[in-house]
């Protein structure tokens, strides 16, 4: 495999063909690695702990939800893979230049939240391994150490992280560890003899599984823009994320049935060689922190394209580290569902604009327009999708992902076609 030098700070400009080097295997490994993590294990435990589902039902919900969420994720990445642009820039043709600023702001906010959660759980895991080696400040010091490492990965850039860090080191350690962890958890029949089928919460449980891959939608093109073509990007993303997301949700649920503890970190620590497993998972967890920081940085460049990435990234890391040192990891499931509520209808609009209205054809002027316009049709459709998600997820409690996506998609399609008919009727 050829050496990959750290690229220059690649901002929002389209990636040239000679830099689009990531193939199916590269992206399969990348998205498998991003789907692997302690937070995913924790979300799997929530399916048993918070929703009271039996293990058999959790397996079915996980497989179905992982496929649906990963399919949506992979479709979002098609634009980035084909045109070499970041995710926030890919919103410009449908939302307008200034219209893309609002999703960008929300994306930066949620990525700071994700980075915070990642640092918290990495700090907890490291503390469980080393004990109180630094006294009362052990967790805080561990959080700062991992924040610095994730920042260094961000400065290195996606090509270096994927080809040198993930493919040569992290993915192998995490895969071996996950195989061992799976064997330990499921070698005892008693680990799955708990839980009941609760039909009332099944749609919400499905939404929780879908929320994990969907949470990466605002980030995907930041990395898939380096794909050789959209076929490599789509298949690598879909298969990689389905495999790892399903695997880790199921193992996370198994850990809960095994120990009954609220934190999977301490559940793993109770296992034989548990500390070694935590160390190995921590090695891979850092790529999630890298992705959150890097994407927050290039997202801000959608608004401030001339700002240096290393400066923006340093600001993101500093803020996230401060939050990680001062907040508790609570209301995690609500946080995931909130991300879905905000971004699922965004990409319902994008799907309608790209696949239906523009018939899979954009040009450079669509991404870099001269006018700083706002597409009101997109804002209206996004708002309708958001309200739909809130109604179905929080009031009617049947799950809001697919209804939200559908309403945003349909409303934008109808509004756009109605506008075209009106314009034709006004033509002499």
Account of the 3D structure:
- This protein is mainly α and 428 residues long.
- The protein has one domain (19-326): Hydantoin permease.
- 73% of the residues lie in helices and 0% in strands.
- The chain is built from 18 helices and no strands.
- Helix 2 (38-49) crosses helix 11, helix 6 (101-130) crosses helix 14 and helix 17 runs antiparallel to helix 18.
- The longest helix is centred in the first third of the chain and has 30 residues, at 101-130.
- The protein is globular and about 80 Å long.
- The model has no long low-confidence stretch (mean pLDDT 87).
Short synopsis of the structure:
This protein is mainly alpha-helical and 428 residues long.
Low-confidence regions:
none
Q: Which CATH class?
A: Mainly Alpha
How many distinct helices?
Answer: 18
Mass-distribution shape: globular
Order of helices and strands: HHHHHHHHHHHHHHHHHH
What is the CATH fold-level name?
A: Hydantoin permease
Supply Rg.
21 Å
DSSP E strands, number: 0
**CATH H-level superfamily title:** Hydantoin permease
Strand residue percentage: under 5%
Determine the fraction of residues in helical runs and give it as a percent range. Answer: over 70%
Q: Main β-sheet: number of strands, strand sense, barrel status? A: none
Quickly count the domains.
1
User: What would you call the structural class?
Assistant: mainly alpha
What's the end-to-end separation, in Å? 61 Å
